[in-house]
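Support reply, case 0932

Customer input (verbatim):
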Amino acid sequence: MLLKVKYFSVKKYIKLHSGFTFLELITEVKSKFGLSNAAQLEIFDETDTAVDEDILLELLEAHPDLCLTVRERISDEAHSTPSSPDTHSSLTDTMSLSSSDSDLRDEGIPTGRSRSSKEDMGSSTGKVSVSEAAKEMVENALLRKPGGEDILEEYKSENSLSHRTRRQLVNILASDMTERHGRIPSRQQREKYALGIITLFPSLKDPFSPKGYEHFYDGEKCSGYLAWSLKTMSRTTVKRPAKEASVPQEQGPKRRRSASTLPQQLDGDACREAISFLVHTPDEASVLQKMKMTFQHRQDLVHDPQRTADVFKTFPRFLDVKGLINQDFLLLFGAETSSKLLEKWDTSLKPKVIKEAKHLTPSTVVCRLLKAAEKLAENEENDWDSDMASLLLLLHLLPPTAGRKRRIKISPSDAEHKMVHFHKSGCSIDEHLQGLEGKQPYILAVGRVQNRIDTFYIAVDKQLIPCQATCSLSALDELFKSHYVFNLSYDESLVHLYTFVQTTIFNIDVTSTDESPRVRELRAKILNEN
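Our regenerated output:
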């Protein structure tokens, strides 16, 4: 059954089996909203009446369309001042309960409330006042600091902030934070500033993250623009002990998944016979059907580190039958997810990407891509078509950063060749493939001129997979899907672009994927734009 649940201003559907328990509901809510497992939650109905465990099911039977409100439980500890930064709870969940009178006086908020009024701060009115107090604190900091008024004026006129202005905003607030709270502000103080930013500048709020401000400060990971600025400010004064390296959890294309619905799967001798049949049959319809029936075996193969390189030897029909990447991705995620890029790009995302790209530094490459994307004039032969140009503009909006292995940052123009490569008809493709290294896939676009491609291929591990696509947007769609079909990590230069496509467009692993603040910032700008 489906339940509608509200946490702060965010509403989501929760899927549970019939006869679920109160604990199962709480567990699912924590997972859906990205809350800590240690969080103690209470449930209220639409009249703000607490719903206890013993009457929950009876209430839902009587009111099946009821929207339940979830809040964190008020504890006595919430009224005391934490002894260290590690003991601070999440700001937007408990800040209204843990602010001391001295903190409130610092922000210019009247004090002298009775204890009973503090205990009432868990109500929705209290939470609004906390957001407003954080907003006022950020606004006052900007009005006090040089350049702050210019930031407010730019947002007022543009309803957004450029990258340069956003960096200035973060630096001003990080400086204000250290002046007021010392060199190492607490987690609660950092989150207060982050909350103030998205309350003062609503279009900077990320609609996909639990609190909306994680790109400015993520308390769970101690990351975000504010955290980075504070680290930069303190780096020259204190040398911190090195942290133990944590083992990253698999996510995105490297995560092992269970397909929701599958046709009958073959194993044992039947599977081996089907694989042998696939190698020799000329009938493409039979190939598509047998590939469906061996999907699970293929997933086991690509997720086995000892055997993943054998996928094209075992299933060579990827190399001569079109549509097999799309079919495997469809089995993995379903039709609704599989169609998202092609449905969203032209109608809602492409115009906003072009609009945002106009704020980039107007280099020769960016100007040519903008001209091609908007079809302002007849394309030159060495220009891409409108869709590919707009996709490359997205790469310029989410440029490569210096990774762990590569200390030198490459430009978006250099990274383009890791995403798409034009190959003139008549030239040797084999020579091109043999001259490249690496397993990460890219589009090989073959044609007489760059803006009119005859054939698209996915090049991976020196092999060519013919695309079902007849246009550049569909080719990028297949390129993205190939990472999941073959269990391939994103190229380090394109990780921000692919992560944006994964979470913002395909909505895959939205709450569990590590996203850079730049990805979240761009999503907030594009999705909040009217």
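We compared this against your earlier run and they match. Two observations from our side: Strands lie at 2-7, 10-15, 41-44, 67-72, 420-424, 442-447, 455-460, 463-466. The first helix runs from residue 22 to 33. Please reopen the case if you see a mismatch on your end.
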